[in-house]
Structure formats: C-alpha cells, structure tokens
Amino acid sequence: MGPKPKNQQSQLQQPQQSKVAVTVGPDTGDVCPVCKSDRYLNPNLRLLVSLCYHKILFLAGAAPCPICKTSLRKSNFVVQTFDDLRVEKEVHYRKKVGKFFNKRLEDFNYDQRAYDDYLEEVEDIMFNLANGVDVQATNEKVERFRQENKDLIASNLSKQMNEDKALSYKLKRESEEKRIRREALLLHDLEKSRSKELSKQAMINELETSEKSAEEIILAYKKRNQEEKASLHSATTLESILRDAEYSIAAAYQDDETFADVDNLDADDFDAFDHEYSDPIPDLVLAAGYQDPWTMDIAVDRAACASGYMPLWSHTRAIQSAFYAVLEGLGDGEITQ
C-alpha cells in the first residue's frame, strides 16, 4: 500500500493532541501563578497553601505574596487538605477561633436562649473571618473575648480534653468486651463441634463391636445427641459463658483507675427505667438453672442468636416491668411502709 494522504495523517493525530491538552497543568489547577510551573512540566511539583490562601511555590526567604502582597514566611505554608480553598480557609478559622469560643450551656446557667445567642455570635465571627468582612474589628473582638474569659477558656479546654480521653478509654474498653465475648462464643461453638465429632466416633466404634442391632445403637445416640445439644444451646449455658466473659473483663480493668468514673459521664441524664439495652441488673437476673420453655426454642434459633438476642433480656425486662410498676398510680401520701 502507498503512503496515506497528508490530510488523513493529520486527522489521525488530532485525538492524541487533544488528549495531551487535557493533561496540561492549567486544567488541573496546580499551576504556580508566578513562575507558571505545573505538574505537566514538573511531576514532583507540590503547591502549598499560604497564610493568605493563595497557592504559590515557596523558594527561599521571606517575601510578599505576588497576589495580595501579604508578607509570607516558610512557616506560613501548609499542605492543602480540601480542593476548595474557601472550605480550607473556613476550617482553619473554625479550628483557630473554636479554641477560644468553647463556652458550654452550663456557663449560661442552662439558659438555652442565651446560649443560642452566643452560638449565633460565634457563627458571625466565623463568617467575617472566612469571607474577609471587618477582619480587623473581628480579630479585636476575638482577642478581647480571649482576654476576658481566659480562665473559663482554660477550664473548658481541660474538661474537653478529659472527656475526649474518657471517651477514647470507654470505646477501647467496649471493643475489648466485644472481643472477649466473641472469643467465648467461638470456644463454645468449638466445644459443640468437638462433642459432636466424639459422639459420632463413639457410635461408629459401638457399631463395630457391640452385639446390639444398628437401629438400637443409632436411636440411642440420636437421643443422647439431642439431650447434649439442648444442654449446650440452653439459655443457662450461654448466659454462663457471657457471665464468665464479664468477669474476665472486670478482672482486666479492676486495677486501671485512669478513668474510674467513665461510666458516670452522663449521670445527669440517668433514667432509672432505661435498661432495655443496657447491662443486666444483678438483682434482676434469674438464678442459674432456671428453664423457661417459652424462650428455649428462641435461644437455639440461628437468626435470633445472630441478631444478638438472649433470653436474659426478656427475663430482665419482664421482672423490671413487674417491679417498676408497683407504685404506678399512687399519689403522694398513699405509699405505706
């Protein structure tokens, strides 16, 4: 075949040229406004965000920003986190100013209206700083607030740090509790599998050596397996396993008093009737060995067990409902010893 016409060759090359044009730096936004360097010419290019939130290359020494003339130093440059610089700027000011404006509802004597007005004022300050509105007056207002409330700011900051540590400790403990419970249930399942395998092997050995008929041996082992299965799946057995797991958790944390009152963080919101999904109350747990025919079938149901259901919750709730409603409907002065 002869050479292709020149116009046909140029048509075949056009898609490749357009593809290169798409990858050029100006389309990606990573272009220095001063030297015009981009990722296409310099693959290792990394643009940092300056104090005035303009992306430029930092070479050496202090120099004014070529866009807004703000004096910049190397310590003023940070790596960009968000694609939108407006979001980057707002997040920066929220972190910076939020350290000072950390009043709580209790600081206003639980006056919700006063607290809401305070939050609205904080949002106005954030808006002004993020959008460049009355920046000097807003900064003076922030500094004046910081000086007037420095003791309260330090106190609330210490409270927040302690609460964060306590929450982290509580989450770690809950994770450890889940791990111990999971391991206990896995051991329970392994015990069931081992018992089933031993029973099967014993039946085979008896079939080989016993003079009884095969039907009698098989029926006897089926009955025995059903009894063992009911015993292993019983609510009492599962509750005993979980109770042992609770003892292991308590033993692991009994010497750790770092946050001994971590469970009392929400003591102000305590509700005596709110035990539906909390840990069982020791005084309301049924004695070991109690058999409830209404929940035995549910205890061995795979779907119910997978959802985390235990008969213990039904028993506890029934007892709570009975005893918590004893005084229902009685007025003042009607309660007798």
Q: What would your notes on this structure say?
A:
This protein is mostly helical. It folds into four domains: 20-80, Herpes Virus-1 (2-Layer Sandwich); 83-148, no CATH class; 175-261, no CATH class; 281-323, no CATH class. The chain has helices at 6-22, 25-28, 85-98, 112-131, 135-148, 150-209, 214-233, 235-253, 296-299, 302-306, 311-324; strands spanning 48-49, 55-56, 63-64, 71-72. The strands form two sheets. A two-stranded antiparallel sheet has the order 1-2. The protein has a two-stranded antiparallel sheet with strand order 3-4. Strand 1 (48-49) and strand 2 (55-56) form a beta hairpin. Helix 3 (85-98) packs across helix 4. The longest helix is centred in the middle third of the chain and has 60 residues, at 150-209. The chain is elongated. The protein starts with 5 loop residues before the first helix and ends in a 13-residue tail after the last helix. Mean pLDDT is 71; it is low at 4-28 and 265-277.
